[in-house]
Amino acid sequence: MPSLRASFEVMPEASMEVLSRHEVNRLLAIGEQGVHHEMLRRCSLAVLNVGTVSDNTREILDAYQDFDIWVVQKDRGIKLALVNPPAAAFVGGEMIRGIRELLFSVLRDVLFITSEVSESAHFDLTSSAGITNVVFHILRNAGVFQLPADPDLVVCWGGHAIGRQEYEYCKDVGYEIGLRRLNVCTGCGAGAMKGPMKGAAIGHAKQRIRTGRYVGLTEPGIIAAESPNPIVNELVIMPDMEKRLEAFVRIAHTIVIFPGGVGTAEELLYLLGIVMHPDNRDIPMPIILTGPKASESYFRNIDEFVLATLGREAQSRYRIVLDDAPGVADLVAEGVRETRNFRLAQEDAYYFNWRLNIDTIFQQPFVATHDTMAGLEISRDLNTYTLAANLRRAFSGLVSANIREEGIRAIEDHGPFEIRGDQALMTHLDNLLASFVAQRRMKLDDTGYQPCYTIIK
Fold this sequence. Notes:
The protein is an alpha/beta fold. It has helices at 21-30, 35-48, 57-63, 97-118, 128-141, 164-179, 194-206, 241-251, 262-275, 296-309, 312-315, 325-346, 360-363, 370-374, 384-403, 405-414, 423-438; strands spanning 7-10, 68-74, 77-83, 90-91, 94-95, 153-157, 183-186, 214-218, 234-237, 254-257, 287-291, 319-322, 417-420, 453-456.
């Protein structure tokens, strides 16, 4: 992972070319040492480190310990000073334009999150409506809402650690989506996040669409392990995983889920928990699970787990389609039309799903520690959406232990997380996780997966 042993100054793009004195002062404060500076440094490194093959956040940060970034005030605004940046971000001594754009997207979002969300009284982070308001304002500040709006945004979820056959299938589906003049939003990383965007870009090119949107939503704890892929042309940094997931479902007009691992299972459980809430059961949220024929066992395991834990109603909220990219795209287009007709009839906004009721159990950040993981209540005594929320938190903890720096350190210091619950539920969870390990869906490297969890039945 080579670095350029030098310092570079980079001019801002578009929205950050004109700043008030207050904004410049806030940026200078962020550029100083501290927690906000470290957030800026980590997110910037991920953007600059395009093409990384590691999903270990600590490994990436260790490889670039000498990288730093500073905000420099100039007479006409600001610049970014980069110290020892990754060489892959430059060609002929100049930063690649797409990377420069994403770098200033990071700066824009870190500025907004720190000055308008974390350190102000503008938003109520204790109520459900207040948290949704934060999500809305971050997305609006990033320019995600484009008017006049037309429902055309397909959210695609899936793992970064997938095989070539699954990746090519994701690209095929993206291509068919692009041919149908629809846009794509993913988690911005590699694998099943890159494939749909790359395919859609080709489909858009055939349709002579020059304004194709490839929206990437991420958050500071995961971005280093899932650096934005080169197709992303709209990057948004959300403050945490929960607000990232809410952003996905609020802007989605249809959701497609490709093969993945624990992170993809987390996303599916989050989504099912929301659509299973009594207030949301009549709101269209088309969900399609798809992959090549070779992924059949993966989807069978997922489907059996959902049936065994959340029941037939949850199972009925999605469709599984194998090895049929054009058919999936037709279903996506049909789902987008269904969403559009419902929003039109209800006089709802096309660009943001205000009507969804998202309970605070899905919104409050879950910090995975040995105590919080062991304390999760996973019981059939819970209502379905609360059980889904707690299962989602369990998978979120496993994601943290696999790729986040703090999670990896916690496992090294104190051993595997313990997950407890009803014996039958724990058996189903254990079986699903074992299938992920057997199918090599837990990590990118070939060193063999060492479980970061123990199931207590």
